[in-house]
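FAQ: What does a multi-protein file look like?

Like this. Sequence, then tokens, then the next protein.
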Amino acid sequence: MGCITKHYLNEFSILGVWKIEEDINTLLDLVVLDNDEKKKYKGFSSNSRKLEFLSVRALLSELIGKEAKIVYNKNNKPFLRDGSRFISISHSHKLTAILLSTNEKVGLDLEYMSSNIAALAFKFLNRKEKVTKEHEDRKYHLYIHWCAKEALYKICDKEGISISKDITIEPFKVKESGEIKGQVNTDKINESFDLYYSKYNNYAIVWTKKNYENR
């Protein structure tokens, strides 16, 4: 299937999603791995992890060219080697997503809505957050909260943030897609963020971006 969406959010930012339907050899033919990437790739024991790794590189190549390379810091946060863009990556089940921006920090999360997430809600929700009681919308509503918190965790790039205590998603009425607001409050951070969510088949996708240039 390859790239199923290439969405320009504005003149600075682009969101891409890749559906993994190729086998490993097909994906290998679509990418050019340098020595560091080859070493990392050979270290994966599972085919699913290899497919994820290759799909990220194939999607990045589709979005901005084969010369783009991803490196990681000590916390395994991804960066582009040339520093030309901020990047956030997420993958779940058969989808891989990348959000890139030349001037805004970014955070992205993608989840396949498979589990009984209601049983885990106590681990990531706090008392300020409200989730619909409508059965047909409840799972999606919960996944939006989870993805939004993951996206905010990524954009803040800070260790020690509690998903449940330090990140709050303001109450919203769940729709197929929309805009929501989130707050991150710790001893070091007091920030408000706009987030955007959508559904693709049985996946929830949430992303956020923020310009810190003038801060």
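And here is the next protein:
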Amino acid sequence: MSTLQADVVVLGAGMVGVSVAVHLQKRGRQVVMIDRRHPGEETSYGNGGLVQREAVFPHPFPRSVAELRRIARNRSVDAYYHLSALPGLARPLFAYWRNSEPRRYAEITAQWITLIATCAGEHETLAEEAGSTALLRPVGFIRAYNDAATLEADLAKAERARDFGVNSVALTPAKLAEMEPHLSNGFIGALHWTDPYAVNDPHALTLSYAALFERLGGQFAIGDATTLRRNGAGWRVTADDGSVVEAEDAIVALGIWSGGVSRRFGYMPPLFGKRGYHLHFKPRGNAGLTRPVASNGFLLAPMRQGIRLTTGAEFARGAAQPSPVQLARAEPIARSIFPLGDAVEPAPWMGVRPCTPDMLPIIGRIPSQPHLWGAFGHAHQGFTLGPTTGRLLAEMMTGDAPFVDPSPFRAERF
């Protein structure tokens, strides 16, 4: 059995884990990255392919009675829940609801924006070094509307976002048809968020950062993060080939599975999951989309595999079998607004977004555990915030001045 010595072992090879590993390797640390699958094959694979610079307002828990009643009926496209999951979710969802109170939500938003404001620039830097800038398409995305009230509310939200450096353009039906001629003409208007990057192969972008990590001298191994053990003052983890990795520092960047590892060392974050699905379709004839289009609680995104139909949030028990109810609800609506052909895959893909009750990720030291760090809980924005998180945590670990104040994201708050 061989033993590999490293300065840091990173558990998790999604966009966040890969980005952390790259930034540490760039700063002279010898890093080994461990995951049960190859880089980018879990939640980082199945997103909408957006680097969401416009996402300055985190997703709050609904507060209005009308919205709560709509979701409680459990018939919507954007949200769906399993009754069996609700008892286990009661505490984190109640805390989520409390943190969505307007005054508290404003405080959280101010902290959240410090991360989101950096996301485009940090992706640009890594993509340039990785040779994958062509994957960052500066076309933004469109949100199209069927009803005037929702359009007006989002136009007002867009005006507030301008105060945080976010750009957008309101579109008339005619302008929308000019920009995306294969959409149906039944929309009353749209909003073009111009700052986000659209990525038509999110997996390829993650793989390009992983390749950069290896070119910098980092190493990747298939292994089980639950084999993490104390090794004196440091850590050890066993790879599937039987080799052992020993390192001074360990980083938990396992998304929704992070809590299962950290609990073994006394830290029990109140993580909960929002499951999401996608399925690719061939467009009919010469139809196509220039950029992702969101509407009616789902997203249609042009990908290399076809048009990706993604869903909102599903709340289920961790071991529950996939139940793509939202895809079934969304597909006929999607077909009514865009000429989708046959499905590309025989079954939908499913992933789980790792969420915290205060809508902020955990970035920093794990309490009472020397040399153990966390980088998880990014909810809907792990793909967006991977490079930002990687740089921030690497600066904290190497003694550099953090380019973003890390205190709002400290693990001790839970």
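Q: Is there any per-entry metadata?
A: Some entries carry free-text notes. For the entry above: The chain has a mean pLDDT of 96.
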